[in-house]
From TrEMBL:
UniProt GO cellular component terms: cytoplasm
Name of the protein this chain belongs to: Protein N-acetyltransferase, RimJ/RimL family
GO molecular function: protein-N-terminal-alanine acetyltransferase activity
PANTHER family: [RIBOSOMAL PROTEIN US5]-ALANINE N-ACETYLTRANSFERASE, GNAT FAMILY, PUTATIVE (AFU_ORTHOLOGUE AFUA_3G00765)-RELATED-RELATED
Source lineage: Bacteria, Bacillati, Actinomycetota, Actinomycetes, Kitasatosporales
Occurrences of domain N-acetyltransferase (ranges): 5-168
Gene3D superfamilies, sorted: 3.40.630.30
UniProt-listed InterPro entries: Acyl_CoA_acyltransferase (IPR016181), GNAT_dom (IPR000182), N-acetyltransferase (IPR051531)
């Protein structure tokens, strides 16, 4: 898939990465940039997420060792069951190089190894063509279009992509 990456559990020093990712171009599918206060709350939530059942990770481009974005997965109640949900963001200067797909492969392997929820879902906006293409590239199956609120109070139309992590 191209890029070589490593995913590392979210750390205190990743706040600057979160600030860099808060640019209008990166946040246009997620309700727009957040305030500094909202970023600090998000950073604390990411720091607390690193246990079984998912977590947030920085994406480190190899061999340079530079932060290229973030990716995570977490448990979500969905359609009467529990699934994992995943989401990612790659800084503009690293987009189009296969970084998100390589990080997605790492998250899929990690989530599958946990033997938690059987399915991993991604919910990119219908018009977020790059993220939808990454879902296809990673082997997700398009289930349906669905309505979400993200951020809360902001209705959006998403694709529900699903990947089976393991066969029970």
């Amino acid at each position: 898939m191209g890029a070589q990456v490593r995913i590392e559990p979210w750390a205190e020093g990743d706040l600057e990465l979160l600030r860099r990712a808060n640019a209008p171009a990166m946040m246009r599918h997620l309700g727009g940039p957040e305030t500094e206060e909202q970023l600090l709350v998000r950073h604390e939530r990411y720091l607390a997420s690193g246990s079984e059942g998912g977590g947030m990770f920085s994406i480190v481009l190899l061999p340079e060792g530079v932060p290229a974005g973030s990716i995570g997965y977490w448990e979500k109640s969905w359609r009467g069951g529990t699934v994992y949900e995943t989401g990612w963001g790659v800084l503009p200067e690293f987009q189009g190089l296969g970084v998100a797909a390589a990080a997605g492969e790492a998250v899929i392997a990690r989530a599958a190894a946990e033997k938690g929820p059987r399915f991993l879902h991604a919910f990119p906006k219908v018009d977020n063509h790059p993220s939808n293409a990454i879902c296809r590239k990673l082997g997700f199956t398009l289930v349906e279009e669905c309505d979400f609120e993200y951020p809360p109070g902001h209705p959006i139309r998403c694709n529900d992509w699903r990947l089976e992590l393991y066969v029970p």
